[in-house]
């Protein structure tokens, strides 16, 4: 196999800044590594040669078993609220931060036990790691901030879940792996110096201008509230359900992280839940903005000692910022809806909220309906009309909307034809787990160009049969 890879120099910025949150660690060996998926574009962004990554030495790099000279992999510590309950010790129980490269973190998932593993085996399996690859790739193509999957490598190890599963390691990149839970751990340590270094590190990476603010931690908080408001609006507009919005899965960068029990809506329904363990519907589609706000309140609590030396006295300033979350979310959502509906800047905002009410009442296929509206903007309302039950309400809304002269071309640039449909992802992952990668490769190929309609590929645009949502709790 040809290889033009020169030496890889992995930095260790997290370990240098925050040794207390870092446990130097190594990956477990992989008996028989086999490449299952590789994103050449992500590789190129890191300055890595895809041909080398496919070679035995590249697979050693991607699984953490052959670490470049000078690299210092660590398991990162963090805490977090999971489904509302606080866990003081989470951390990378099956993951490692290999280091940083080209300004981003390179992280492994499924690389073996660490001191944060608690009772877990430290491993990951093929299906869920490929799910992260497929859905993360789709999210990036949709223009939504996200960690990115570089590769999934089958380990050749059998992993014991409900049934024996083939093991895998995911290699992914992120602007950083700083989470709300990272701050919760530093706050719980009652070490203000550690908390300050963590905030300074986050500021240096994600919002350098905050360093000059009167209260840098408050400026950091304001930034995170803003990027999360934008992110949540993007999720809601595209019909994405994250599924496990615990505080350890909320990034400081504003990137989507951890594609566990996630999926895209078929029928638009605020009560949609995909995670089999989310019995109370805490992270249902329609509750996501409020779940994010709740997480941001926990972030504020963690930051309080940096807002004021008497944390209690920092509360009003932090609450004032937190209270901007929903207005910022609504502004981002309104702007996004304006784009999805091909409206001019000065269009009546009630067009968006009235359409939302129509979607809530009629449950059309989310992705298909918005795409069909661009056909309506070209003069054929029937495809959209076929998706709703309340035809009088649809006709009334459509008449108002069409009178604004919506821009169909602009709409087609923001309303995807293809999203990772739950049933297709499931089908592809089951095939891959059984050794056939072709369905996944074909699916990823379509998802990389979500706005470009492809003749003969209708099955990738269609919703699954009603009632066949796969609820999911695999890891
Ligand atoms: N098989 C396992 N062995 C050890 N720890 C695990 C295992 N699975 C999950 N964990 C740990 O449980 C916690 C919650 O897991 P979760 O599934 O949210 O994270 P993850 O998918 O492993 O990682 P990330 O959030 O980085 O994408 C984390 O601390 C994670 O490291």
UniProtKB/TrEMBL annotation:
Residues at which Mg(2+) binds: 249, 258
Residues at the active site: 248 (proton acceptor)
Pfam families reported for this sequence: SelO
Domain of life of the organism encoding this protein: Bacteria
Named cofactor requirement(s): Mg(2+); Mn(2+)
Enzyme Commission number(s) of this protein: 2.7.7.-, 2.7.7.108
Binding-site list for ATP: 91, 93-94, 109, 121-122, 172, 179, 258
Keywords: ATP-binding, Magnesium, Manganese, Metal-binding, Nucleotide-binding, Nucleotidyltransferase, Transferase
Catalytic activity of the protein: L-tyrosyl-[protein] + UTP = O-(5'-uridylyl)-L-tyrosyl-[protein] + diphosphate; L-histidyl-[protein] + UTP = N(tele)-(5'-uridylyl)-L-histidyl-[protein] + diphosphate; L-tyrosyl-[protein] + ATP = O-(5'-adenylyl)-L-tyrosyl-[protein] + diphosphate; L-seryl-[protein] + ATP = 3-O-(5'-adenylyl)-L-seryl-[protein] + diphosphate
GO molecular function, one term: manganese ion binding
Keyword ATP-binding listed: yes
Enzyme class: transferase
Free-text function comment from the UniProt entry: Nucleotidyltransferase involved in the post-translational modification of proteins. It can catalyze the addition of adenosine monophosphate (AMP) or uridine monophosphate (UMP) to a protein, resulting in modifications known as AMPylation and UMPylation.
Similarity comment text for this entry: Belongs to the SELO family.
Protein name per its UniProtKB record: Protein nucleotidyltransferase YdiU
Natural source organism: Klenkia soli
């Amino acid at each position: 196999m040809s290889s033009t890879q020169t030496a890889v120099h992995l930095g260790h910025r997290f370990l240098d800044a925050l040794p207390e949150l870092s446990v130097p660690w190594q990956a477990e060996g992989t008996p028989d590594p086999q490449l299952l998926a590789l994103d050449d574009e992500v590789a190129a962004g890191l300055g890595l040669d895809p041909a080398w990554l496919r070679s035995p030495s590249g697979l050693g790099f991607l699984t953490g078993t052959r670490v470049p000279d000078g690299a210092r992999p660590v398991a990162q510590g963090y805490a977090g609220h999971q489904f509302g309950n606080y866990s003081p010790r989470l951390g990378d129980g099956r993951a490692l931060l290999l280091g940083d490269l080209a300004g981003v973190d390179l992280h492994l998932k499924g690389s073996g036990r660490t001191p944060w593993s608690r009772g877990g085996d430290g491993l990951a399996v093929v299906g869920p790691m490929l799910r992260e690859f497929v859905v993360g790739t789709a999210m990036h193509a949709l223009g939504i901030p996200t960690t990115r999957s570089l590769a999934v490598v089958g380990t050749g190890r059998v992993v014991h879940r409900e049934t024996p599963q083939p093991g895998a390691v995911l290699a992914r990149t992120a602007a950083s792996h700083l989470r709300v839970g990272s701050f919760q751990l530093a706050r719980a340590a009652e070490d203000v110096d550690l908390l300050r270094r963590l905030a300074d590190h986050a500021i240096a990476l994600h919002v350098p201008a905050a360093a000059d603010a009167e209260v840098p931690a408050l400026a950091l908080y304001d930034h995170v509230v803003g990027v999360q408001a934008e992110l949540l609006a993007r999720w809601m507009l595209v019909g994405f359900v994250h599924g496990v919005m615990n505080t350890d899965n909320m990034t400081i960068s504003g990137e989507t992280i951890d594609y566990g029990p996630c999926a895209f809506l078929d029928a638009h329904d605020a009560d949609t839940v995909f995670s089999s363990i989310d019995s109370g519907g805490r992270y249902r589609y329609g509750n996501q903005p409020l779940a994010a706000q709740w997480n941001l309140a926990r972030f504020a609590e963690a930051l309080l000692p940096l807002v004021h030396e008497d944390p209690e006295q920092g509360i009003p300033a932090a609450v004032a910022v937190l209270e901007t979350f929903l207005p910022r979310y609504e502004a981002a959502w309104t702007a996004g809806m304006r784009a999805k509906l091909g409206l001019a800047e000065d269009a009546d905002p009630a067009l968006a909220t009235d359409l939302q009410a129509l979607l809530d009442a009629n449950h059309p296929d989310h992705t298909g309906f918005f795409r069909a509206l661009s056909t309506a903007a070209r003069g054929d309302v029937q495809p959209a009309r076929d998706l709703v039950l309340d035809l009088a309400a649809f006709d009334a809304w459509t008449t108002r909307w069409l009178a604004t002269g919506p821009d169909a071309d602009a709409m087609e640039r923001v309303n995807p034809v293809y999203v990772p449909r739950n049933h297709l992802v499931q089908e592809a992952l089951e095939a891959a787990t059984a050794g056939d990668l072709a369905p996944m490769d074909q699916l990823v190929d379509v998802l990389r160009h979500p706005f470009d309609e492809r003749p003969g590929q209708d099955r990738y645009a269609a919703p699954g049969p009603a009632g066949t949502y796969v609820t999911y709790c695999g890891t």
